[in-house]
Amino acid sequence: MRKTVVKINMDDTFNVDGAEILRLDCKTQMSYTFWTNNLRHLYRMPHQFQNEALDMFFISLAVYYCDLKESRSDQPDNWTRVFSIFMPVLEYDKWLNLKRLLENALRFLTGDVWKFSFRKRKYSDYELKAKAGIEKYKKNKIQATTFCMLSGGLDSFIGASDLLSDGEKPIFVGNYNGGKGVSVYQRKVINLLKERYNHDGGYFYQFYAAPHDSCENSTRSRSFMFFSHAILLASAMQNNVKLIVPENGVISLNIPLTTHRVGSLSTRTTHPYWMNMLQSMLNELGINVTIYNPYQFFTKGEMILNSKDKDFVAANISQTMSCSHPDLGRYKKETSPSHCGICLPCTIRRAAIMRAGIEDKSIYRDEHYMTPEGKRYLTSYRYGIYLYRNRPADHTFTVMNSGVLYDHIDDYVGVYERGMEELASFLDTI
Question: Where would a tag sit more exposed on the chain, N or C end, judged by fewer CB atoms within 10 A?
Answer without folding.
Answer: N
